[in-house]
Amino acid sequence: MRKHLLRALLFGAVFAAAIALMTLPASALTEGDWEFQLLDSEVTITGYTGSDEDIVVPSTLAGTPVTAVQYLANSPDDLTARSITFPSSVKSINRILCYAYGSGSDTVTQINLPEGLESIGSHAFENFNALESVTLPSTLKTIGSDAFYSCDALREINFPAGLESLGEDALRYCTSLISADMSKCTALTLESGVFDNCSSLVSAKLPPNADTVTYGCFHYCSSLTDVEIPNSVTRIRDFAFSECTSLASVILPTSLKTLDGNAFSYCSSLVEVTIPYGTESVGGTFMECPNLQALYVPDTVTNLSWKVAVYSDNCVIYCSAGSTAAEVCQSHSLSYLTDSSVNSLITVLYNGKRISFHSYEQNPEIIDNRTLVPLRAIFEAMGADVEWDQSTQTATSTRGGTTVKITIGANEMYKNGSAVAVDVPAQIINNRTMVPVRVIAEAFGADVQWNQNGRTVLITET
């Protein structure tokens, strides 16, 4: 027993010594209030012993350029400044506090980062609770894990176009952060949990070339209402949007192949979701979504978990007869309805609700960059009465004080007797009358938008 105890004590002492060697500089020089290492033609700052409220990091020490900041202070008690300004010579910032142990600075409200900075290291500004905004230089390439962890006063942060890496939990628990726009970052790779528990985050735009929404990326972003997922994402990982309780709708990109378990679990405001045609695997993605009413699953999904919407008791799964989804529903007594239009390459939403084309036996078509839909589908979805004159091949639709007339092959339609140009005329496709959805919806005063990522037409009116 004594031998084991001595061995354990010896191991502990060696381990502690190793940690000490890892955290202490190999040799510390001093100049004024600054401690530093001189590494050939570069200087790395390892400490600051002054008490200035506004710290200005020098550009040279010992006549040599300062290129890196390893640490400024050992603990929060040693850092009482309100601002820190870094010179343009600095290429990397590692950690400001050496021994934070879960606490940070309650005084620093401003950090001035220079053009030329390339790297912000792991835990660099962790728990800087008074920091409200950060301007990242255009030269920045990497932000390490936990770099801004729990900066809970941080409301805004820009992401430069050249940013290449955003580390694990980099902005986790930034509970005042409102928006995150990464749409200009064409080479950015996200690690897991980047925005986890950013409870004030309202909108987010992912990098345009992202192939994955990472594990827990937006977990518990309870204020998130608007997220733009680019048409490059092939996989949405576990818990990516879990507990985003304000997210009432989401448009999934047509590039999507895999939806992992719990990706949207506990999203209590979701009402309906369309899985895009081409998706192959869907796990227990929508568990515990109590207001989810409709989940549209195409035939391309050949791997579907029976837990896809478990405990989402109001959900009906729409799928085509004989599909994998239909078989799973039958095997596990899940509520479902047959809808062949789940295999449409184009989705049309009216006030957030998907328009089904099942009964019209014809899905939307894109012709000359215009979306055409079955005539009765759009008119009836918008609550308009419609009459068809076979002799003139003219449809007349009325709603309230608006009457719309459109004729097959004509380059104009009529709204209350006035001509309106139609760049793609109504036409017959597979024995169905197809009309351009935009001009019809706009004729009744609706707003029409096109989401390219999800190939979705959004028709909105109050």
Tag the structure with descriptive keywords.
462 residues; mainly beta; 4 helices; 10% helix; disordered N terminus
Write up what this structure looks like.
The protein is mostly beta strands and 462 residues long. 10% of the residues lie in helices and 29% in strands. Strands 1, 2, 3, 5, 6, 8, 10, 12, 14 and 16 form a ten-stranded mixed sheet that branches. It is elongated.
Short description:
The chain is mainly beta. 10% of the residues lie in helices and 29% in strands.
Summarize the helices and strands and which ones pair or pack.
Layout: H1 2-23, E1 29-31, E2 34-39, E3 42-48, E4 54-56, E5 60-61, E6 64-69, E7 83-85, E8 92-93, E9 110-112, E10 119-120, E11 133-134, E12 142-143, E13 156-157, E14 165-166, E15 179-181, E16 189-190, E17 203-205, E18 212-213, E19 226-228, E20 235-236, E21 258-259, E22 272-274, E23 281-282, E24 294-296, E25 303-304, E26 316-319, H2 324-331, E27 336-338, E28 347-350, E29 353-354, E30 365-367, E31 370-374, H3 375-381, E32 385-389, E33 394-399, E34 402-407, E35 412-415, E36 418-421, E37 427-429, E38 432-436, H4 437-443, E39 447-451, E40 456-460
Parallel strand pairs: 3-6, 4-7, 6-8, 7-9, 8-10, 10-12, 11-13, 12-14, 14-16, 15-17, 17-19, 18-20, 20-21, 21-23, 22-24, 23-25, 24-26, 26-27, 28-40
Antiparallel strand pairs: 1-2, 2-3, 5-6, 28-29, 30-31, 31-38, 32-33, 33-34, 34-35, 35-36, 37-38, 39-40
